[in-house]
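It would be a great kindness if you could assist me with a short task in structural biology. The matter concerns a single protein, recorded as an amino acid sequence and a row of backbone structure tokens. The record follows directly beneath this note:
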Amino acid sequence: MMKRGLCTVMTCVGIVAVFGCDRQPVSAPPGKVTSEDVRRDAGHALDTAAQYSEQAKEEFQKKLEVRLQELDVEIAKLREQGSDLKDDAKVRWDRKLAELETKREAASAKLAEVADSTAMAWKDVQKGAQAAWDDLEQAFREASSEF
């Protein structure tokens, strides 16, 4: 994905460079596209794409932050439920909870990567973050279904 974004940027820069070297008069006849039109529109397209990407990143990040807070509450409830267990059940529960905590930390780290990523690079980070979240939610479902 990052290569595709870089290729898109490089293509736009190339178009601007090629048409920017053309010395057509700025006052072209009506209906004709000038190099100035291309430069202006290419710059606007890049700005719009960057804004869209930043907004999508922020929405994804906020969604994960809210979900992490919700899961923290649910994990605390599970921890409380397992506090009365004894012997083998307690050992199994502690393992499940430790696994859940490990996956929670991995998901939290991926969320930090999303926050630190640039608007152009966050799509690559999104895949890893989504996979970590899916893994965490699966572990949570397994732990909660057991007790």
Observations:
- DSSP finds four helices and no strands in the chain.
- The longest helix spans residues 35-82.
- Residues 2-20+35-146 form one domain.
